[in-house]
Amino acid sequence: MNPSTLFPHSRLQTERFSTGRSSAVASAYSFLLQQTSRRLSMSTSLKTLFAGIPLLRSTGNLNAPVTSICTDSRRVAPGSVFFALKGNRVNGNDYIDEAVIRGAIAVVSEDDGGVPPRAAYLRVTDARETLALVACRFYGNPQADLNLIGVTGTNGKTTVTTLLKFLLSEESTPVGLLGTVAYEVGKRTLPASRTTPDAVDLHAMLAQMKDASCKTAVMEVSSHGIDQHRVAGLEFDVVAFLNLTQDHIDYHRTMDDYYSVKRRLFTGETGSLPEHAVINLDDVYGHRLLGELPGDISPVTFGVHPDAAYRAEEITLLPTGSRFTLVYPGGRMEVISPLLGAYNVSNVLAALAIAGCQGRNVSALVQKLMRFAGVPGRMEKVSVGQSFNVLVDYAHTDDALKNALLMLRDITPGRLLVVFGCGGNRDRGKRPLMTRAVTELCDHAWATADNPRGESVDAIFTDMKTGVSNPERITFTEDRRWAIHLALEEAREGDAVLIAGKGHETYQEFADTVIPFDDRQVARELLNLKLNPQN
After folding, report:
1. Could you tell me the residue ranges of all domains in the chain?
2. What would the pLDDT profile of 122-142 be if each residue is shown by its tens digit?
3. 438 φ, ψ (degrees, to nearest 5)
């Protein structure tokens, strides 16, 4: 029989996922989830999983044993519970028949009816929130045995969480990490599919961390993750707010909406109140959040603001990092950081403030900081012996670009050259802002493709060009490899080339395909050709 007859929606769903990350990511997840599921599901029934969870309606056998929880009908196996989630492009209710044919014993949906009678049906008010609560229960509530730290903000989440993992880890007690670059669960590292994983993957990986003897888990918490209830029910010991600048306005519509979503993490709207809230006092939204915290939370502030509990004074920015005096509840000390720029001084302060909330010896951590190797794709140097600086960075907002360029201007004796682009199917409003920031602060820029996704590069360029303030400083060229080539060919001794927007990413997304593309690798190859043209 033709598979399309049994699964009429399979082609649409496959097309949807073909535009995402590589299939290796999905395979890694499946392996992880299958391992955990087999271990935990032997005595789990529908009745146990949904005990105490409000149901608008239920039918079928609620005593049936559950083997896995799925939101993708293609992952369904006999004994699965299928959550039919509604997305922006795909409605999970369209895949109910496929899920049941594959062996789902139950379907959870916000819609009424449409479930074959051989599967149980559970109707709920909010399927995503229910999914988070059920996933936590299915995987044995692993968070109860972990000290959970959540970090949110537009910029800096990856640096702060990676630095925290480094500072807090000890040989006998590894620290788990869930973030944009990778998911580290004990000795296993998985490629990240999104900043904050969906609830099923999230709790599966927390369970893996527990089994790997992790005592602490550090995670980046995105606004999408909060709004889509991926972190619903999590009990954070510490949550940190880094900053808020324009991003994701295609999703949140306004900055006030964007802020309101972030705020939920600190007010108990996603679960229980955190014990500590670490807040950037240099950020206007940080000031606002500090005034809106519930009285039961203990706030700890950081920044250069004179009232900050963890404060940086006498800051010296160097080509190799920074030096500053840390003023904190334990006294004063000199800090030498290998991370470049003033914004990384803020990130270091955030990490030390969080660690201080955990009762760690801040003085010892400051000594350890000097050995930190940095974060992949965050001001990562690419060097094959050339006489100019080449750096790859994830900066993809106007604020992040401004910070990066101002920092590089301070430490670059020559010209500042930039390769950058704007992603497709994302916030169009930030495109002219990014272009204005670059053309005002660099000597020359090459605007090119980032991840165009379903948009034409020409359409993206049209939006970007409205922000050009100095047209003689920018060249538009569609091919990203060629743009990097042009920038590197132009560079001379003492210059700096910033390749911005993709950072650690190893792919480029187009409308119907994903191709391998790593800015760091491409730059290295082109530099070798420049230095050794005979090869």
Report:
1. 3-132, 142-369, 380-531
2. 999 999 999 999 999 999 999
3. -70, -50
The two structure tokens encoding residue 425: 């199917």
Q: Per-residue confidence at 248, pLDDT binned at 50, 70, 90?
A: low
Exposed/middle/buried for residue 134 (C-beta within 10 Å: 0-12, 13-18, 19+): buried
Please determine, for residue 353, whether its predicted confidence score (pLDDT) is greater than 60.
yes
**Sequential DSSP letters for 365-400:** HHHHHTT----TTSSEE--SS-SSEEEEE---SHHH
Which homologous superfamily does the CATH classification assign to the domain defined by 380-531? Mur ligase, C-terminal domain (3.90.190.20)
CATH architecture of the domain with range 142-369: 3-Layer(aba) Sandwich (3.40)
Q: What is the mean pLDDT of the chain?
A: 88
Label each residue of 116-158 as H, E or C.
CCCCEEEECCCHHHHHHHHHHHHCCCHHHHCEEEEEECCCCHH
100: three-class secondary structure by DSSP = helix
- Give me the sign of the Cα torsion angle 330, 336, 338, 340: positive
Q: Largest alpha-carbon pair distance within the chain? A: 74
- The predicted-structure confidence for 1-10, as pLDDT tens digits, reads as follows 333 333 333 3
DSSP 8-state secondary structure symbol assigned to residue 450: S
- Report, at the CATH architecture level, how domain 3-132 is classified: 3-Layer(aba) Sandwich (3.40)
Count of helix runs (H) and strand runs (E) in the chain: 19, 24
Q: How far is CA 4 from the centre of its chain?
A: 35
* Cβ count near 472 (within 10 Å): 8
